Amino acid sequence: MTLAGDAASEPVAGDFHGHPTLRLSGAGVWVEVLASSGPRIVGLGRTDRPNLLAETPDLGWETPYGRYELVGGHRLWFAPEDPERVAVPDHDGLAVERVPDGLRLVGAVEPDTGLVRTIEVRLDAGASAIAIRHELRNRGSQPLEIAPWSITQLPLGGEVLLPQRPAVPGHRVRPNRTLVLWPYTSWDDPRIRIRDGLVTVDAVGGDELKLGSFDEAGWVAYARDGIALVCRFTPALGEAHPDLGCNVETYCGPRYLELEVLGPLRVLEPGDTAELHERWELRPLAGAPADALELANWLATSPGDPAHGGDGATRAIA
Question: What pTM, to 2 d.p., does this model score?
Fold first, then answer.
């Protein structure tokens, strides 16, 4: 591990299932990252609560480059998904740099693609929030057409909220909403519920399901155990996206749920970068509406931060 620079708050060394970590705390939240592999975020919570992210240290699979460890928590991938290029073992080669109020995690140059993955984490001193900057840099010799893709593993037992445009009166001749399903996903799956202005997914273990859409509202959320993790971002309106135009996706399987955000497709020439910015807010649900559509509108009311995705695109969905 390489550690350089200055930070406003001192990270504390720790351990995540045998992996050394660094933890940052402040403003009512804490976040924990792997210190020698990744880049990965493996822990997140309010100061009085345990880890909100899924922990899957026993899961992984073999790749052409060795075994890929899922570990748990948050990772940076790229789309369109190519299993033989995206799941590159990241056991070593990580550089950790101090930045104001946070850490920058820079991965090793990857075989085949020449990509370098970076995750930068900063605590928001004024709110229970975390700013996350994802970067893909092409250090190879060939151009790559890819989109940055962040994936956050979460424990089962909660509910995903995916905003949609609501219906409007009057005859219109062109469609304005999509819902994309993966081949193993059934419309009859009772965990999927579609309402005007909102799609929800119950995070109940079972057969695999995955769906996605283009989210113009600029946020998605996962509500569980009295806390909502609200992920805000700036939608890239009018730009091409992978997976039939998705910028948000969710996956649910027998062990965990994933909340995913995708940036637009870019052709990265050698030396170019693509970035994806998110702002994570932890919102207590005490006093929040019980109805899912009302809850979604309640979560959408936070103004956000223009520097990290809350630029006015975040809005109520009905």
Answer: 0.92
